[in-house]
Amino acid sequence: MSRTRFHRRFPLFALALASLVACGCDGDQYHATIQRTSFGIPHITAQDWGSLGFGEGYAAAEDHLCSIVDQVVRVRSERAKYFGAGEDNRHLISDVAMRALEVRERAALDMETYPGELQSLHEGYVAGFNHYLSETGVENVRGWCRGQPWVGPIELLDLASYSRSLIMGSTQFAGPIVVAEPPGTTGEVALGPADFQDDLGASNGWAIGSDRSESGRGMLVANPHYPWVGSNRFWEKHLVIPGEFESYGVGLLGIPGNMIGFNENIAWTHTVSSGPRYTLYRVPLKAGDPTTYLFDGEERAMSSREISVQVLQDDGSLEEVTRRVYFTHHGPVLSFSGFEWTGDFAFAIRDANLDNNEAPVQWLAMQRAQNMDEFQEAHARYAGMPWVNTISTSAEGRAWYTDVSATPSLSAQAVEAWLEMTRTDRQIGGALAGGILLLDGGDSRFEWVDHAAARDPGILPFSSLPQLERRDYVFNANDSYWLANSDELLEGLDPLLALQEGTPRSTRTRMNDLILSDVSPEGPSGTDGRFSLEELAAAAWANRSLTAELLSSEVAALCGATPGAEVEGQWVSLAEACGVLAAFDGSYDTDSRGAVLWREFITQFSPGDLSDQGSLFSVGFDPADPVGTPHTLASGSGRDLVLGNLARAVQVLERAGFALDVPLGELQHSNKNGGHIPVHGGLGFWEGVTNAIGFGPNGTTLEPDPELAPRIEGSRYLRADGYPINSGTSFVMALEFTDDGPRTVALLTYSESGDPESSHFTDQTRLFSEKRWRPVLFRSADIESDPQLRTYEVSGGVRP
Q: Tens of pLDDT along 562-574?
């Protein structure tokens, strides 16, 4: 009988044997037990932190070795070494930026601050990852990196560097930093349109307190909207040191431990924060000398650093290429469209997470917390969250929201002066409209303010950051802290943060609160107004479209009284469209008819039309009713635009050859492994669906993207084969605490394995398509009774 078959038949004996082996009797090797249950979920048990990391690193390599090693190549500044300069010098830019921002040097300093448990966890992870690679061999690795020369063992510094690269916001500006050169310089580096992008995703997070749960205990919905491809994927795991530590959840590939998840008493999730994580500075330059700037009228010379990297040439040789990167005292100089380095001004960035070495320590403390007080103390003590809100609940039924992300601190006088400049300075005002905080870098009034209680100079302390604890619910959907519960708006905080108060909310945020605040007998929590786990899970995938609920019947009535509309000289009949919209129930399930037509209609408008009175709504935003406004279809001449945009939507679908009432699932799909898996959900921004999905190119790894069908003329999203989906709802979990501990259902929409040959590459994607949750196996008895259980021990490596 094989070892795997033996463990499957006798799991209890196997675990006991593993515990004996793990005593350390083999000397300095690591030992861990991995139990893979249905859908490939690993449950990793070890007797110490190093061995726990060893088991996690080994299991992660089994599922995602290629994506993790690819990130190691990136943070080593070796992409150009193996792949050449890349299109528009992308690889060269990435390599230079990693070195210019000193990612590895900062990571080395980070490791010096790790507590012993965290250090051991990382050391074990590296050893386990390398042990799997050694056992398997580069030529036998499954996936897109098989046999590639860049695949090899990783080091502890690689792991810390990758974590550091995710925490630092300035790494998102790699292209603009590397291409910034004094005016008149003729450089060879070009900046492509995709080099300046933010890869961070969106999310929903719901925490339910004792007043709204059937059990009287806490409940949680985690629904991060993240890529389904690349390195920014979540990987699900269960980590156990018997009697000392237990954590279930997900972390990003290559990051040990759980970033979202739960233990026996605490559950939490994150959403990307909308608050400022950096400031951009416009620095005035000395006439005739573009590398000398003026600060309070005094001249200061920029510093610079030459960065050399190896670049693969067409003939297979390596050539050393050197670029110079410039810095002010604010930070690195950058240049991109609208913010170019000229003879008058240069632009620099200051990153609030530059010195953040607390994030990994805080995540470990959060996983170890055994009640809400301890969980909150982890935030107060470390304040290390880089760019995320935290939404959490506890077994005793406390629901807590906070955004302790690294936030620049400016004086009230500086904020007041800057606001005046947004009205009088076109560039500063335009930057704000684009979501960029642009300050006068030549005026010391706009320097960040230091606080003794803050974790790092220049950022706000924990006590100044938003927090809200409730017994009904708190939530976030990537809007500001202002609306975490519509019955208790958070107001009057720091002047810089307060800019986010009293402003329009996204349609997705509004729908989140409508779902959670509804205590009517017909609402999602039923006649008692208290959620059961089943009701909460159903609400997470309700797929209600706010814009459709607000407007579709009015649009149907309007077009019902109008035979058609003229678009660019062409008469378009609206009779069929009126009927489709009249029958549309406003949902985005795979069998929904009318959802596609509504999407093509609503996306004809401008983004600003969805937030206030104008071309779409006749009743504008009211800060006293942020969930209920804006509403009601535009009147007067606005209705002509409504009819015109509906006619344009009809043209789009006719041009593509799709029926106006085509079911959503026939067009909206995942094409994993060349298949067509129907996907439910909607566009969070345009349609106001909480279960948000979408599409984006893989911008984080070098894994090849599938070829896309051409886009249909006149549409923002529709292609010849429909709507391909590869981002959005990712790890989605609904949890309730009971008298017997946590009861949880979950799904990883893109499935657990990154190997196209694995049975766990699409299995959960198909469950997602069918709206079928799977139970989370947290108790030992449930794990051991799983019919697909596969148990194996892993041993090896040498402890430092």
A: 989 999 999 999 9
- Tokens 């009861």 correspond to 743
Q: What is the pLDDT of residues 375-419, one digit of tens each?
A: 999 999 999 999 999 999 999 999 999 999 999 999 999 999 999
Look-up of token digits 């006798």: 10
**Domain 546-666: homologous superfamily in CATH:** Aminohydrolase, alpha-helical knob region (1.10.1400.10)
Q: How far apart are CA 126 and CA 159, in angstroms?
A: 8
Q: What are phi and psi of 33, to 5 degrees?
A: -110, 130
**Catalytic residue annotation:** 203
CATH class of the domain defined by 3-167+786-796: mainly alpha
The answer to whether 565 and 647 have CB atoms below 8 angstroms apart is yes
Does residue 16 surpass a pLDDT of 80?
Answer: no
Cβ-proximal residues to 707 (8 Å cutoff; 6+ apart), any chain? none
Given a contact cutoff of 8 angstroms between Cβ atoms, the answer to whether 540 and 223 are in contact is yes
268 token code pair: 């939490």
Name the helix (H) or strand (E) containing 123: helix 116-136
Is the overall model pTM greater than 0.90, yes or no? yes
Q: For domain 278-351+410-446, which CATH number applies: 2.30.30.40, 3.40.630.30, 3.40.50.150, 2.30.120.10?
A: 2.30.120.10
Residue 418: CA atoms inside 13 Å, Cβ hemisphere, count? Answer: 28
Q: Are strands 278-286 and 438-440 parallel, antiparallel or unpaired?
A: parallel
**Strand partners for 719:** 711, 722
